Amino acid sequence: MAEDQGPRQRFPSHDRILARIAVLTPRIASFADQGLQGAANVLASALIARSLSHSDFAIIGLMIGAHYFAWGLHRSAVVLPYILDAVDGDIARKDAAWWWIGAVVSFALGAALLAGGAAWRAFGGGSAWIGEAMMWAALTSPALCLLEFVRRALYQRDRALLAASCSGIYAVGLVGGAGAVLLLQGDLRAAALCWPLSALTACAFGLAFTRPGAPRPRTISILWAPHRKFALEMGLTSVPYSIYTTTVVMLVGLFSGPLAAAGFTAGRTLTNPAMAVVSAIDTLDKPRAVRALAADGLDGLAGSIGRTRRTVVLLTGPYLLILAVGAPWILDKAFGSGYGEFALGVQLLAVSFFMTGLNQPSETALIVLKASRTMLVIRSVVASLTVAGLWAFGATWGFVGCAAAILAVNTLNVGALRAAEYRAGVKRA
Q1: Which residue has the higher pLDDT, 246 or 428?
Q2: Which of 20, 244, 327, 337 can pair with 346 through a Cys bridge, CB separation 3.0 to 4.6 Å?
């Protein structure tokens, strides 16, 4: 009997190892998902920067910035309420309804970007190039927003590997397209089309597994009703948030011109891998925070947020430190000659985006607690300070002045969010 039991006793933790692998798989897939997108955006931007002039590359940067403004609205009004709603219940039915809500919002935002861009291009005078960027974003943003929802739906169904596969398809299409632009000496139009075409291809793959089906207006109306107020409030909070984060490149271009916008785009491209890591952490940690609050109250939420914060520091800090130290060399190697002059501004942005990553856990806590009014107040104040700082320092010191203003504002934001988090009762994080 002892000999029969020997092999079983030698590997007593076999089941625990398998269980651990099952737990880690979504996390690994999440990092692969965001890593593929981050790497693709860096490589594509570097290839396109070598293909275009500084002014045309600035338009690409503003196109992405305008998209992020729409993406922020879509995420706040659709994706976040969907995540909070889809923790339990009939996931497939909710996916279908939320998909159509997201699709309508995506195309409405695209139409708004098109109208706003056309008006700016017609009446913007010297800044008409910003309107052109918005018009390209009107084509790009709906495709990327639809892809974002498909990926989120796959995560909610515990199909993280499929979500990562969507990002893999997107990455191959984007980098392949950017490479073709460089080899074939394509122009601004060819470069701008790389993003929507690769996003739509990846979205089509994801839809094969989510299959939302035909819209059912009554089901959509019933599901949307209890989330309408929260979605509106979160949508409003995304506007000031975008001003000092994702769409700040538009203010840089407005106050300091296309050369500064090109420098900011190069800097944001290089920091993109760190921000992709933050997004990967957020993808899984926000639903985890919802569950922790439901299971253990504020103490459970505090523990979840604390783990998120430590993960952000450990995974983004080393990369951003390397970027800050090696910025002059990295810029020349990644984007070619003429970009090394932006090194000091990029170094300031590396520190600034580290602060942005630290903001994410506090914002998760406030979102889970549905403290949307508190977030609106903080974001509005921070946005106002951002506009004032970019106007005051950008016109005088160009890209470096803009980067310094962004760093100062993000540092203040870290303190404000931690104070709000503590006041809301999340005191152990």
Answers
A1: 246
A2: 327
pLDDT at residue 90, rounded to an integer: 58
What is the C-alpha radius of gyration for the chain, rounded to an integer number of angstroms?
A: 22
Upper half-sphere CA count for residue 376 (Cβ side, 13 Å): 13
Q: 393: which DSSP letter? A: I
* Secondary element (H or E) of residue 138: helix 128-156
Cα 207 from chain centroid (whole Å): 21
| Contact by Cβ (8 Å): 65, 264 | no
Q: Quick one: tokens of 97?
A: 């309804």
Q: Report which DSSP code applies to 87.
A: T
b (16+ CB within 10 A) / e for 196-234: bbbbbbbbebbbeebebeeeeeeebeebbeebeebbebb
Selection from 222, 227, 203 nearest residue 153 by Cα: 203
Q: Are residues 346 and 404 in contact, defined by beta-carbon separation less than 8 angstroms?
A: no
Distance of alpha carbon 329 from alpha carbon 335, whole angstroms: 10
Residues 335-345, buried b or exposed e (16+ Cβ, 10 A)? beeebbebbeb
Segment 221-235 shows an average pLDDT of 80
| pLDDT(9) > 50 | no
DSSP tag of 115: H
CA distance 124 to 138: 18
Half-sphere exposure of residue 47: CA atoms within 13 angstroms, side-chain side: 23
8 Å CB contact between 413 and 275: no
Most confident of 29-38, 84-93, 94-103, 213-222: 94-103
Residues 205-210 have a mean pLDDT of: 89
Task: Determine contact, residues 143/201, Cβ cutoff 8 Å.
Answer: no
- Residues 196/144, Cβ–Cβ less than 8 Å: yes
Q: Is the pLDDT of residue 283 over 80?
A: no
Task: Please report the pLDDT score of residue 182 as a whole number.
Answer: 92
Name the pTM for this structure: 0.79
Give the pLDDT score at 15.
Answer: 52
Whose CA is closest to 291, among 24, 30, 86, 29? 86
